[in-house]
Amino acid sequence: MTPFLLVLALVAQSTDIEREAAGGILRQIDSLEARLKPTETAQRLVGRKDAARDRVLANVATLWNGEMQGLSDWIGRHPEVGWHEFQAFDTLTALLRSYGFQVDTGVAGMPTAFVARWTSPAGASGPTLGLIAEYDALRGTQGDFHGDQHNAQSPVAFAAARALLGYMTEAKVPGRIIVYGTPAEEVDPPAKGILYKAGIFKGADILMRSHSSTETRRDRPGFGVCCLNIDAVKYTFTGRPAHQLTAWNGRNALEAAVQFYSAVDHLRSTWRPDHRVQGVIPEGGIAPNVVPDHTVVDYFIRFPDEVYLEHIARMMDDAAKGAAQMTETDVAITRYGEYRDGVTVSALEELWFAYAKKLGAPGIQEEKGRPAGYEETGWVSREIPGVGVTVRSSSFANHTYGMRDDTFAEIGHKAFVLDAQIEAAVLFDFLTHPELRTAVKEEHRTLAGLQGQYLAALRRVYGPEIGADTALSKASRADIRIPQVKRP
């Protein structure tokens, strides 16, 4: 392995097993990048003189300062958690209709999801440009709040879309623009996974989104997801009620839940240290004088790769069944959300990052991050190439009240207009440069093909350690149920 490949292997995948399994794959990725030269292509595109592109970026800034910043602040001051984003949904869809978009609502059975489509007067024969728009808030001890700055993501996408719409109309450029309103990013089941399985994203040639960040950094090509591979699982224990004075007549579901919770902690020493397994007991009984007959333990099970994640999940299932057996209760295991690795395309990562530097984005970090797809479910980025823009928008960590406050401050406002300009610039280049589209398509197709080899290699390397678990290879085991929410 050359020194370059050794460095790549040390940072592209985060665990020893990943690096061992990925060695041959990384060499193929390196060969692909050496041939496609994404950094050189990005520098050439960004450095060229293009009056039309520059007008688009100027229009983005005008749109942001004239309307979108106020919209972002308004959503930020009216936070709504996932599946309940009715005010934001109504406001955003009405605005898109005023721009000339055809808006479909309630898509994939989700009341606050939408798809807005616009076709150029020159026809639909050109590329289809997709933008992902989020608008849900976090749940917090001080009430719902936008501590992840999702309030800005829709206005950012709208500013980019409207500026591109104006250019395509004036220059008679064929193509389509689609804005995907994706609710409930912070709760489960993952809405983008539901949209993906319903085929909503089919037909898009590229997808873009923005997200809050404490730094401006692009990622390496390969396989990954923003927050590790995740199984969101609920373990529901059912017992039998009884009076506390005659507790032997009941079967205590809370004791089963506690035994299970404790068993998971005792299992940690048998798992690789890269695991992140966090759980809560949101339902533990009603009153101390009644033996609890219904409890729920809710876990997020995380690991850098999906193969070892399956191993951890299987052991936790066994622990839950054991706790139920010893307490003579029943347990129902519901996988209500799954997040898996996606595909990171260097041609788009290098391009957005080059524009970030050109436009003077704050918090530039030259070292590349781990591959992270471009959206949290991973499934979508396996099928459609795309990129997520992450300009430094806060000096506070994600999911904090400090990041919420920075939403309304100069650091947030400056980052959001840069997000919008970068989205517009990347989509403009994709629209107007066929050679970029060709390179993106080839890189994405090649990486998506290598991902299957990578997963097979992981199963082979893990084999001696996890044994029969290597046979677990289902694409999805989640029991996806869309919450039924009524408008207030």
Q: Describe it for me?
A:
With 488 residues, the protein is of the alpha/beta class. The protein folds into 2 domains: 39-225 and 342-446, Zn peptidases (Aminopeptidase); 229-339, 2-Layer Sandwich (Alpha-Beta Plaits), CATH 3.30.70.360. 46% of the residues lie in helices and 15% in strands. It contains 14 helices and 12 strands. The chain has helices at residues 3-12, 16-36, 38-47, 51-77, 86-99, 153-171, 191-197, 253-267, 306-327, 346-358, 379-383, 401-407, 410-432, 434-466; strands spanning 102-105, 114-119, 128-133, 176-181, 206-210, 222-224, 229-238, 276-283, 294-303, 330-339, 342-344, 386-389. It has a 6-stranded mixed sheet, with helices on one face. A hairpin with an 8-residue loop joins strand 1 and strand 2 (114-119). Helix 2 packs antiparallel against helix 14 (434-466), helix 6 (153-171) packs parallel to helix 13 (410-432) and helix 8 (253-267) packs antiparallel against helix 9. The radius of gyration is 24 Å and the shape is globular.
